[in-house]
Design brief:
alpha/beta; Rossmann fold; 7-stranded parallel beta sheet; two-stranded parallel sheet; 11 helices
């Protein structure tokens, strides 16, 4: 039995689809606060446990008879306390339930940058989650992801109307990034592989780190219109988050994350190609030899979104 958390989210939805295409439908169980948000065909094909995967009672039902779990902590800009409080608030009851039900393996979405020596806000929170799972003794694969390309979807209107996108990331520093589809593909591959029981991090990234300025140049070529990058200050970004009603602890965690990204946190961990992870059977990694590059992502994802905005 494979349990999938966040099955209606950007990554979890794709993981469920890949698993349904590759394995017995009866062997998949999902945990969701809103079963009605599931695609009707998915809802009919999987076991559904309603509730939050932060709730011990929900986890007790979800992990009963499970062999493997796909784990993702959903962001919550309104969560009280710090980002680490938020991540460990999910991980702590999960570790207890894993031990109780003798679940063998967990595949979790975490951050790239293990070994970075300073506080990195929400990224450090993900590292704390990793440590909690590793300390539990469960077989663990942390899918270490950097900047999500899908974050750029938030700026499609600005790209279309103003010919620019803006972030607080340094314009001239190469940035490791990843497409959500590649995370989902790697997650499904590892979940379907029964041959591992150890603990390891699996970095998953685009094949090339690009500066935001270079991203703008590629966008311009793909969209056939001028696109420029505008760098905001981290301080202004922090104030903007607070102005949008983001909780103080979460806003601080995101600001600290951006500072760490500008300080090169992703360079602290080698960007290994998922296709070269030796524990994976080749039958389970049919697409990972060609991780999505930024130009292809712009052609396949960004351009249709901008054109439809």
């Amino acid at each position: 039995m494979i349990v999938v958390t966040t099955p209606t989210g950007q990554i979890g939805r794709q993981v469920v689809e890949l698993l349904l295409a590759a394995t017995d439908q009866a062997s998949i169980r999902v945990v969701t606060r809103d079963p009605a948000a599931l695609d009707p065909q998915v809802r009919a094909a999987v076991q559904v446990v309603a509730g939050s995967h932060r709730d011990p009672a929900v986890l007790d039902r979800a992990f009963d008879g499970a062999d493997s779990v796909f784990w993702l902590v959903p962001p919550d800009p309104h969560a009280p306390g710090t980002a680490t409080d938020h991540y460990l608030g999910f991980a702590a009851p999960a570790c207890e339930a894993l031990a109780k039900h003798r679940v063998r393996r967990v595949v979790a979405v975490t951050s790239l940058g293990h070994g970075y020596p300073h506080d990195a806000g929400t990224l450090s929170a993900a590292f704390a989650m990793d440590a909690a799972f590793q300390h539990s003794g469960v077989g663990y694969r942390g899918l270490a992801a950097p900047f999500f390309l899908e974050n750029l979807f938030n700026q499609t209107a600005s790209i279309r109307d103003n010919g620019e996108f803006a972030m607080a990331l340094a314009a001239d520093r190469p940035l490791a990034a990843v497409a959500s589809a590649d995370i989902a593909t790697l997650a499904a591959s590892v979940l379907l592989d029964p041959a591992w029981s150890d603990q390891a991090m699996l970095p998953v990234t685009c094949p090339e780190d690009l500066t935001p300025d270079r991203m703008a140049a590629i966008m311009s070529e793909v969209l056939d219109r001028p696109v420029r990058y505008r760098q905001n200050t981290v301080e202004d970004f922090h104030k903007m988050l607070l102005g949008f009603g983001v909780a103080a602890g979460w806003a601080q965690g995101v600001a600290d994350m951006v500072r760490a990204q500008n300080d090169g946190i992703y360079d602290a961990e080698p960007h290994l190609s998922p296709a070269h992870t030796p524990h994976l059977s080749p039958a389970h990694v049919p697409h990972l030899s060609q991780p999505t590059d930024f130009r292809a992502w712009c052609e396949q994802q960004l351009k249709p979104t901008v054109d439809a905005a």
